[in-house]
Amino acid sequence: MSKQKRERLFSLHSLLGLCVAFILYVVCFSGTYAVFTASLTRWENPEISVQYEGAPASIDAEYEAFIDSLPDTAKIPMVITYYPTPDMPFYKVQALVSAGGPPKPTIAQFSAANGERLEARGTSLSQWMAYFHTDLWLPYPLGRSLIGISGLLLLLMVISGLYMNNKLVKRSFLWRPDKSLKLLLLDSHNMLGLWGFLFHGVIAFSGAVLGLGALSGVIFGALVLGPGEHAHLEPLEMPQLESHGEMVPSITPDRVLQISKSVSGEIPALGILVNNGKDNAVVRIYYEVEKPLVSYGVLDLNGVTGEVIAHNPTPQSIIPRLYISVRPLHTGAFGGVWLKILYGVLGAILCLIILSGILMWLERTSATLAKVGKASSISFMFMEKLSVGVCVGFPVATLLSIYVDQMMVVEAARRAYWVGVSVFTIWGFAALYACALKTHTSLRALLGIACIALFGLPILNLVGAGGFVSASLIPNAVFISLAGILVFVIRKLPKTLA
Amino acid sequence: MSKVQTFFSITLGVLASILLSAVLIFVLPVEQGERFLAASFVFPIFCAFLTVLMVRGFPFSKMAKLYAGLIVISLILIKLNAPL
Question: Which of A42, A227, A435, A483 is the most buried (most CB within 10 A)?
Answer without folding.
Answer: A42
